[in-house]
Every structure is written in C-alpha cells, then in structure tokens.
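User: I'm preparing a small set of examples for a lab meeting where we compare how different chains pack in three dimensions. I only have the primary sequence for this one, and I'd like the structure in token form so I can line it up with the others. Please keep the answer compact; I'll paste it straight into my notes.
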Amino acid sequence: MKISFMTFVAPEWSLEECLTAAIRYGYDAIEPRCEADHNHGIELDTTKSERKTIREQFDSCGVALTTIATSRRYAFDSDHELQETIDLTRRYCDLCADLGARNIRVFGGRTPEGMDFEDAKKVVAEALHECGEYAQKRSVYLCLETHDAYCNSSDVLEVVRTADNPNIAINWDIMHPYRFGESIETAFNNVRQHVRHCHIHDAVRPEDGSTSGWELALMGEGDIPHDKAIDLLATIDYGGSLSGEWIRAFDPEVILPHDAQVLREYIASATE
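Assistant: Understood. Below is the structure token output for the 272-residue chain.
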C-alpha cells in the first residue's frame, strides 16, 4: 500500500518541488492533477521530449507516478461532447504510457438535465468500454471515481461491470460514499474487486448531518474512519495508492507530514 498526494495540495509547486516534498515527508508517489492550471508541467500538450525528461525525474528520485487525475467525464447527452471526451481520454492514455503511469482518474459526472440516471449510467458505461479498448493497448487503467452522481459505490460497481473491460477500474474516494450514508464496509465490498486507486481526505460532519458542508480535517481528526478502510484494503493486499486530495485546504507543510505519519500508522496496524 503506497501513500501519495495530489498536486492540489500546492498547485503553484513545480514538479521538482512536488518530488522534493514527497521525499522529505516519506511519500511513495505523487498524483498530478491535469486540466487545473497546476504548475507541475504534466498536461496533454507536454512534448515527447518533455515526457521523457519527466519520466527520468521520477525514476531517478524513487518517487512513483502511479496515477494522473483528469477532469474527464462521460455523462453527456451531446454526441459531440461525448466524442470529444473519448478522444481526450485516449490522449491521456498516451500521456500515461509515455510517463510510465498506470492509472487515470475519471468521473461519471453529473447527470444532464432531462436525462434519467439509469440512462446516464449506460452512456458512461458504453463510453468507458470504448475508451477501455484503447487503454488496454496502452496498458493503462481508467479508474472511475466514487464522486458526483456516482458517490454511491453500488452505482460505480454497476457501471464498471456494464463497461465490461478489464482496464476499467475504480477510484475509491473514501469520503464520498460515507458522507452519503454508506458504511465503510458496504463501500469496500462494492469496490473490492475493481479498486486500483484511493483518494483520502478526512472531514468533519456538519452539525445538521447533511451530505454537503463537510469540512476537511487532518487525518484522524475528522469523522471518516480511514483506519477501518485501510484495515479492509489490507485484506485484499491492496497495492495501490492512498492519495491525499486536499483542494487548497491546508498549508502543505502541515498536512503532508501529519497525514503521512497517521497513514503509516494505519497501514502498519492493518498489516502487522
């Protein structure tokens, strides 16, 4: 089990600064967030020469690039928009393959107005099936996140099964199913056969108990039992990353060392 962080922790950092922080605080990997104007230099327009240099940077410092986080989503009622996102997904597969990454984070997205959710799930599954065929050729996995209209882990499982492609997997954002009322055990049982990447961020439940308004917290100081999730992931010998996604929520010099220490303690307890 690896620990990682997404570049949203410090969007202004260069790739060298991200890698230096990973080494300083004992992270195994970093997760570049593309399509968000971050300063790491990993985007679709990164040249072949630049990709080679970036891959060498990761290899030389011992920090892994396991997953690239994108904004790609597939619940569109427009054929033009759907084809555009499929084309961009294929380009991300090429980018990942060039950099040595194996996973791409993608979304189902919000259900378009006037579209039934069941129909939206079919659109997403069909698009992922098509993208998955190209991903297979590039030895890359598309990881559908438990997010947006797909916070319910059973919906994500249904889409992945319908997509019916071995290179379509799950990005378990541990917070979102939990804040919508699923237990950690229920979410885990739904994702366990397909999970390749996890997003972690502790948070405090709002006083009114609603699904919105959760305030991000340092790991172990919120209401989301990540220790239980890690215990369960250990039962399947999960080898992917636990990647911290804190969108401009903390000073990186505070959250990075703190969460690294707590996550290491959780992992040690789960695997002892």
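A couple of notes for your slides: The chain has one domain: 2-271. The radius of gyration is 18 Å.

User: Perfect, thanks.
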